[in-house]
Design a protein that fits this description.
With 205 residues, the protein is an alpha+beta fold. The protein has a six-stranded antiparallel β-sheet with strand order 3-8-4-5-6-7. Strands 1-2 form a two-stranded antiparallel ribbon. A hairpin with an 8-residue loop joins β6 and β7. α1 packs across α3 and α3 packs across α4.
Length: 205
C-alpha cells in the first residue's frame, strides 16, 4: 500500500505543484489589492480576471500570440512561488538566494526555458523595447538604483506592480512602481517575445 501511495504522489507531484502555485498567485494578488485599496480606485475586475485580461491584451499585440500568454503566466507563477527568498549578491538559485538579475534569470530558465545574460544591463539589451503605458505581465522592468542606468531588473505583474529581489537584507517581494522611489528610478522595459529572439548567455552560471 505504501508503495502505491508513493507512486501516486510522484506521478501527480507536478500537478500538485502547479495547483499550489496558482493558489499562491491568487493569494498574493488578493493581498496586493487589499494593501492598496486605500489609495487606489477599485477595479471592475477581480485580480485573476485582470491578469487574464492583461495576458489576452498582450497576446493581441504580439506577433506570436499563440505561445506567449501561457509562457507569461508560467513566468508569473514561477516568480511568485519564490516570494520570500533572501537577497544574495551573485546568487542565482533558491538555495543560495538571489540578486536581481539572478532572480529574473532563474525564473525565465525554469518557466520559459530561456537563458538570459547574467547582468541587468545585458538583459536590457535583449527583446523588444516597450513604453511604460504598454507594459504587460511578464515584461521586464529596469531601474537606476546605483546611479547607473539599467542596474536593477524585475518582472512586471500588471496593475503597476513588479516582483524582484531588491537589495542586501531584503527578500523577493512585490513592489508598486508608482511609489516615489521606483517611479523616479524607472529606466524602461523590455519584452522577451520569442525564445528565438533571445541569445543565450555564454557567461558561467
Amino acid at each position: 500500500m505504501s508503495v502505491c501511495i508513493f507512486r501516486l504522489t510522484s506521478y501527480n507531484c507536478r500537478v500538485i505543484k502547479l495547483i499550489q502555485m496558482r493558489y499562491l498567485l491568487s493569494l498574493v494578488l488578493a493581498l496586493m489589492s487589499a494593501s492598496c485599496a486605500a489609495v487606489e480606485p477599485s477595479s471592475a475586475y477581480s485580480d485573476n480576471q485582470m491578469l487574464d485580461k492583461n495576458l489576452s491584451d498582450q497576446a493581441a499585440y504580439d506577433e506570436n500570440p499563440e505561445n506567449w500568454s501561457e509562457r507569461a503566466r508560467e513566468v508569473l507563477l514561477n516568480a511568485l512561488s519564490l516570494t520570500g527568498i533572501k537577497y544574495k549578491y551573485g546568487g542565482n538559485t533558491p538555495e543560495t538566494g538571489f540578486d536581481c538579475s539572478g532572480f529574473v534569470r532563474y525564473v525565465f530558465k525554469q518557466a520559459a526555458s530561456v537563458t538570459l545574460p547574467r547582468s541587468a544591463l545585458e538583459i536590457s539589451q535583449l527583446g523588444k523595447t516597450v513604453s511604460k503605458n504598454e507594459l504587460q505581465p511578464g515584461d521586464l522592468v529596469f531601474f537606476n538604483t546605483v546611479k547607473t542606468a539599467f542596474s536593477h531588473v524585475g518582472i512586471y505583474l500588471g496593475n503597476n506592480r513588479f516582483i524582484h529581489s531588491p537589495s542586501s537584507g531584503g527578500h523577493v517581494r512585490v513592489e508598486n512602481m508608482q511609489e516615489g522611489y521606483w517611479a523616479k528610478r524607472f529606466n524602461g522595459a523590455q519584452r522577451m517575445e520569442q525564445p528565438s529572439t533571445i541569445k543565450e548567455s555564454r557567461s558561467s552560471e
